[in-house]
Amino acid sequence: MVEAMLSSMLTEILIPVAALVGIIFALVQWLVVSRVKMVPGSANGANNNNSSKNGYTEYLIEEEEGVNDNNVVNKCAEIQNAISEGATSFLFTEYQYMGIFMVCFAVIIFLFLGSVQKFSTKSQPCTYNKEVMCKPALANAIFSTVSFLLGSLTSVLSGYLGMKIATYANARTTLEARKGVGKAFITAFRSGAVMGFLLAANGLLVLYITINVFKVYYGDDWEGLFEAITGYGLGGSSMALFGRVGGGIYTKAADVGADLVGKVERNIPEDDPRNPAVIADNVGDNVGDIAGMGSDLFGSYAESSCAALVVASISSFGVNHEFTAMCYPLLISSMGIIVCLITTLFATDIFEIKAVKEIEPSLKKQLIISTVLMTIGIAVVSFVALPSSFTIFNFGEQKVVKNWELFFCVAVGLWAGLVIGFVTEYYTSNAYSPVQDVADSCRTGAATNVIFGLALGYKSVIIPIFAIAISIFVSFSLAAMYGIAVAALGMLSTIATGLAIDAYGPISDNAGGIAEMAGMSHRIRERTDALDAAGNTTAAIGKGSAIGSAALVSLALFGAFVSRAAITTVDVLTPKVFIGLIVGAMLPYWFSAMTMKSVGSAALKMVEEVRRQFSTIPGLMEGLAKPDYGNCVKISTDASLREMIPPGCLVMLTPLIVGTLFGVETLSGVLAGALVSGVQIAISASNTGGAWDNAKKYIEAGVSEHARSLGPKGSDPHKAAVIGDTVGDPLKDTSGPSLNILIKLMAVESLVFAPFFATHGGLLFKL
Amino acid sequence: MVEAMLSSMLTEILIPVAALVGIIFALVQWLVVSRVKMVPGSANGANNNNSSKNGYTEYLIEEEEGVNDNNVVNKCAEIQNAISEGATSFLFTEYQYMGIFMVCFAVIIFLFLGSVQKFSTKSQPCTYNKEVMCKPALANAIFSTVSFLLGSLTSVLSGYLGMKIATYANARTTLEARKGVGKAFITAFRSGAVMGFLLAANGLLVLYITINVFKVYYGDDWEGLFEAITGYGLGGSSMALFGRVGGGIYTKAADVGADLVGKVERNIPEDDPRNPAVIADNVGDNVGDIAGMGSDLFGSYAESSCAALVVASISSFGVNHEFTAMCYPLLISSMGIIVCLITTLFATDIFEIKAVKEIEPSLKKQLIISTVLMTIGIAVVSFVALPSSFTIFNFGEQKVVKNWELFFCVAVGLWAGLVIGFVTEYYTSNAYSPVQDVADSCRTGAATNVIFGLALGYKSVIIPIFAIAISIFVSFSLAAMYGIAVAALGMLSTIATGLAIDAYGPISDNAGGIAEMAGMSHRIRERTDALDAAGNTTAAIGKGSAIGSAALVSLALFGAFVSRAAITTVDVLTPKVFIGLIVGAMLPYWFSAMTMKSVGSAALKMVEEVRRQFSTIPGLMEGLAKPDYGNCVKISTDASLREMIPPGCLVMLTPLIVGTLFGVETLSGVLAGALVSGVQIAISASNTGGAWDNAKKYIEAGVSEHARSLGPKGSDPHKAAVIGDTVGDPLKDTSGPSLNILIKLMAVESLVFAPFFATHGGLLFKL
């Protein structure tokens, strides 16, 4: 075996440097965004306007100029404030619930893991190499608890920062839209980048620091060290669960409620300020699609890193204490930050958006550029950071692996992510026939629309599943479970760019809402709508990749769990495993039933409140009186917090109960079942929802002969399309994406508790 | 080991006797039904009427008496004729397609299995006991092909006979409805019983004869004998595939097409004779819900018997040539026929239905009585037909099993079926809160209705999956794969009663349609509607049990396949198996996408034709002109035959391709994945559909204060409910139930081709 080229010292420097570069880059972008002033008459406003009127950059379209300007800017600022306050207040209330959960669960972790060796403080022989002494289980309990808390806090911070920048940027995007679609695009995209880079860099930095601090205690016991680190992934994902589910219910209850009364019953446009639920709807975008998604992807990132690290710690990297090779996952992420930084410059500085039709290609170009660059990046990291040959733990044996094999593992994950993204785009963008067919089926009413939409979602799982299967096969064959974990990391390595694109969508959506509410002109609204439509498609792409990576992450965690629980085979032909498999495959249905029903009930409450306001507040429909926005915000908040608890419990308790009562074999079955079944529902649910949304937009936009034959707004086919869109809302924004977390979280929780289950689990069969 | 009490000779006699008793009973019931004359003015008609007017039995309600009577009877006969002709012509066309398939596939079976030993005619060492010589693989190829053809023909016959009796009984039920709901109920139920008993008895008899004839050649080589017999299951199930899919597409294309134009656009009632698609709709009930379902359940029955027999042949029963014990599965089925016969008498002779509200309890009582009696029956068979202790093949080892353990295996399956049935009823009957909640959600429109309905379907899988998991665990732990196979047989042992109840539904549905078309009075229609509503719920129960049994059957076949392919573990932790698992879990989605899209496209064609007729045939809406029913029948026929081919290919080719290219491990993964994922979609799809249907009926019937607040027909909530019902149609009658066959058929096909895959499979990995 040849040593890695990169020295340990250099590794110790490069990782934090990359993280800091990412953070600085994010702050610079924030600074640029902040130069759009929300105060009327400032340097960027009307004063400066005359001087540069001939340049495209500083030109305000005519009807927005003049006396009305101050008024509009003030109104935007006011609305932004309301959204920001609503979102902040929701998140803080949510964090109180999460805080209680965090403390309780920290205690559970400590007690369960501590009890493995009856809270003994003595060192004990290691699990994999009995000749060496490892730190006591009590230490593992304490450090796992600490890393769980760190992961939780980082996850919460990621979500919160994302929400802050999004609500900071939304009105700024609206104001920039007065100058042109390119300006607005850049503002929204930069803000997305702030979130993407902050999250990726923070996640890396905290993990890096934690490892280094823990090393002070653990010393050479890397097995124990990285076992304790898995708590970081659990913390990240469990916060994401509540963020995704709570945020998802919030946003869709408000959205569905606002649409059902506003669009369907009262026939007023979306985001009309007369609709009492409109602020809640906009708040929802920020707490669900921004904060929730941020926590989710942070969770995936943390988990795949932990899965890779824990497997590495019992492979030759860990056994021989090769620090650089051990840090391979972190180096991949570091490289990812740099690659994404370069990619972002292409969008913000190199190519300039001048027309609406350039937006979507520009975003897609981001994905392609980052993937191509990252492939080179992976090759570099693999050749400098890894010895040319090493061994990887493979369920009891050590398997010899070459560095180029690991390169293929990461690269196959990266490219599978791109394939999944583009397939998702094909099935959800209204530029292609699947969505157009769905739109066409609206001719015969809502029923055929729903049937075609469901069929589309089902069909859209085929290629992504093959892509995932191929990645699994390749990486599993080359480097066992470590291969899967780094494939997942590969898919997530361009997370900063992915998140920037993801966050761009809700920011544009909000910007449109603010334009409508501030009473800005039709042309502004058209520009923000164009931004939003592109965002819809890219959001679907983002969701597709998030689900794909969740599948790989979950499998990697499953592998790590199995290794740690000292299982060497999970045989479907044993009753214990098979019942786990079939019950596990049922859990996503149970979970989806809960979340969808929650959205439905919360939306019904919202509908009643909106109807009440419309009928009791005189002059509301005429625009003479203001609705009570606060009450709708409160309804969404209360409903989502109350409703997130049962699905949360289902996910958090299942591994504990199954592991304790039925033991590790059944739990393995449950994890495998939930994974293979959940990934299908997640993909089909989010694509079905995305397709309905864009089928509706296709009819509304009426760009082709065919689309015009279905429209205009208010026609029967359009009404049928609105029904499909409303059905799709909880599918694509609540139950679908939450399933990601279901499959990941159960796996990481099993991994953290593996020592307990291996020692004390399976009580029912011990009777 | 103690010998079984029942001698081989007695076994040889008892099985065919039970089958013949079943057939005779069915013929007697048919005779009773035929006494309802379709010729006006006969003994049973108006003449006889005066003499017994004081008795409830022969009393015709007033508006049906007198001069109009002849006219009505003639009209009913005419409509019945049209339906019967349409159904017969469809089935014959379908059989031509199936015939071609059957011949091609028979050739494939012969070539694949013959090639295992290069078409050698020499005897060879047995697979499990190398010291004994077994018949050559060529013999296996020939006999498998023959039993495949026999299974196919029996399946086709089952479907055809069911259709014949159903179309014979529908108008008779309508006519009897003039005398009272009890009379009509008995007629419909007796006709259902004809189908149930014919199918159960025929299936048993043909299987029994085949075994005995094959034994002449095979002699003591039971391993080879029962391997060849598995072709019977494959034949039964592959015909069922086309029957279910083709029939399912037919019935729902016609139904959705008829509803979308008739009910939604033209505002005419269901089954209105002015609707051109109305005959096609009624034909559809007979070819889809009767013939398709008949073939499906026959397939399940044949497969579970084959799975049990093939495992038994390599257990002590087969090795020691204990004929009685070997025939245990057939004896259970024989006992089932007798038990169901007694159960039927309760409905037809012991309790009499006098009021509408007694119908549903009476049907449910059938299920409970048959289950209780069958439990005793199983105990009797287990104690007289089995030695007190024996060994069962368990993936390479022999496991010692007691006869009472086998009793528990069968009984747990039987009772799990009942539990699944009642849970299904809870979620789909409008007497309970889940459906009422769905109906209530119609207040806010179709979108919330669809959301709540989907959530209900997802939720309804929880308990059935636990019931299946428990059955699997108990029977697997007690008697390995043989336990699972007999548990499936237990669930299917009361198949005659189950089928009678299932077939009763579409017959009543048709009877209502005929009453409407013949212009009979409102009161008659109310009676047939009441019959139909009860049938809807019991149909859902039947579907639930069919899915449950399919899950067990499929697992049993999977186990038999694994045994035959000489695999001892199916380890999820190997890449070959895992990719199989995840791709397998995707197949039900692919398949559902195909079938739902097919229904959608076929329905669109039907809508166009119905619209065309309404707009081009003058006087159609006024009832002055007759629509062109034949054209609609033709559209449904053509569409369903064309559309059944791609999903059919998916199911039939997947095991062949996977087995040949990727080998038996990956195929095992595919089977397990398809099973655990498919059963969930199947249950949720059929319950969602059933719930929407009954939510609509709940609003229409308006029996409670709450229901009335949502109605009446034509109100906004009712319109929303109709949309849900239409979406549910393909879910509950096409894609949901077809998934049963997907999971069973892939398993039985793998089992039949196992020797080929074991010898020549996995080409891709051999490169």
Blueprint of the fold:
Two copies of one chain form a homodimer.
Chain A (H helix, E strand, L loop, with lengths): L7 H27 L11 H6 L16 H47 L9 E2 L7 E2 L2 H41 L3 H38 L3 H44 L12 H36 L2 H4 L3 H4 L1 H23 L8 H27 L3 E6 L2 E6 H26 L4 H9 L4 H14 L2 H31 L2 H23 L4 H43 L10 H42 L12 H15 L1 H18 L1 H38 L3 H6 L5 H45 L2 H4 L1
Antiparallel strand pairs in A: 1-2, 3-4
Helix pairs in contact in A: 1-5, 1-10, 3-4, 3-7, 3-19, 4-5, 4-6, 4-7, 4-16, 5-6, 5-7, 5-10, 5-16, 6-7, 6-18, 6-19, 6-20, 6-23, 7-15, 7-16, 7-17, 7-19, 7-23, 10-11, 11-12, 11-17, 12-15, 12-17, 13-14, 13-21, 14-21, 14-23, 15-17, 16-17, 17-21, 17-23, 18-19, 18-20, 18-21, 18-23, ...
Helix content estimate of chain A: over 70%
Secondary structure category of chain A: mainly alpha
| Strand order in the largest sheet of chain A | 1-2
What gyration radius of chain A follows from the Cα positions, in whole Å?
A: 26 Å
Assess the beta-strand content of chain A as a share of residues: under 5%
Task: Give the biggest beta sheet of chain A.
Answer: 2 strands, antiparallel
pLDDT under 50 segments of chain A (min length 5)?
42-58
Average pLDDT of chain A, rounded to a whole number, is: 87
Most residues in contact, chain pair and counts: A-B, 79 and 79 residues
Distance between the termini of chain A: 49 Å
Helix count of chain A, per DSSP?
Answer: 24
GO cellular component, one term (chains A, B): endomembrane system
Enzyme class (chains A, B): translocase
Membrane topology (chains A, B): Multi-pass membrane protein
EC number (chains A, B): 7.1.3.1
